[in-house]
Structure formats: C-alpha cells, structure tokens
Amino acid sequence: MSIGRTQVRGRTGDRTKTAENLRYAILRVKNKGQRISIKSVAEEAGVDASLVHHVYPDIAEEIRAMTGRSTRSERDKAQQQLVAAKARIRELESEVEKLLAEVTEIASVNLTQVQEAAQLQAGLRDNVRMVRKL
Predict the structure, then answer these.
(1) Which terminus of the chain is less hemmed in, N or C, by CB atoms within 10 Å?
(2) Exposed/middle/buried for 51, CB within 10 Å: 0-12, 13-18, 19+?
(3) Per-residue confidence at 67, pLDDT binned at 50, 70, 90?
(4) Within a domain: residue 130?
C-alpha cells in the first residue's frame, strides 16, 4: 500500500478523494436535514465511522465543531472549569483554615470558662459549708 492511499471496506481508496467524499457527505447530511454526527456522515460517504476518527481526525473535528462538541472547545471548557474549581478549592481551604482557628480559639475560651465554673462551684461549696457551720 502506498502513502496517500487507504483501505476502505476492502478496497483501496485515495485519501484525498475519500476526504472530499466525506466533506460532500457532510453537505448531503445537512441538506437532508439529518442530525450531523460522525456516524451519519460516514454512512453517507460509505465508510466506517472509525475511519473518520482515525484517518481523518481533522474532518471528525469539523463535524464535532458543527455539533458544538469540538474536542478543542470541550477541552478548553473543561480546562476553564478546572481552573475555576481549583480557585474555589483554594478559597474553601482558606475558609477552613480560618474556621479551624476560630474553633481553636472558642475551644480555648470554653475550657477557660469550664475551669472558672469549677472554681466557682468549689468556692460556693466552701461558702455553703461555712454557712451551715454557723
């Protein structure tokens, strides 16, 4: 098999001619009012969808772009979502750190108050004993 030629359903085809047929198939699918997909275009062109994916990735990308599912746009969208999620994670981590500091401070104040309450109760018991002795 020579460079520039590809096997299409058991026959050898010219890659340029197949690419042209795929582009015409895109137009025919559109004109028929059918839903554009790699599968529908491949069927219209008489080739296997895997051929479009693997041998003609540029045409596959064109088809995805027409459906709003461009690999590039999906990747860019996912990248933007990832950046936003990482920023949100940093915000939340900062908030957690602040809240932990608050909890530590509150726990310290609480412990101090528990100790003071225990001292007051002990002092009250001592006062009650002294009053009973009177």
Answers:
(1) C
(2) buried
(3) confident
(4) no
- Assigned token pair, 125: 């018991």
For residue 46, the tally of other CB atoms under 10 A from its CB is 13
Q: What is the extent of the structural domain holding 65?
A: 5-69
Residue 10 backbone phi and psi in degrees, to 5: 85, 0
Any domain includes 92: no
Rounded to a whole number of angstroms, the distance between the first and last alpha carbons of the chain is: 118
H/E element holding 5? strand 5-8
Provide the Cα torsion 9, 13, 15, 16; round to 10°. -130
In a domain, 81, yes or no: no
Helix (H, G, I), strand (E, B) or coil at 104: helix
Number of domains in the chain: 1
pLDDT digits (tens, 9 = 90+) for 1-23: 344 444 445 455 688 899 999 99
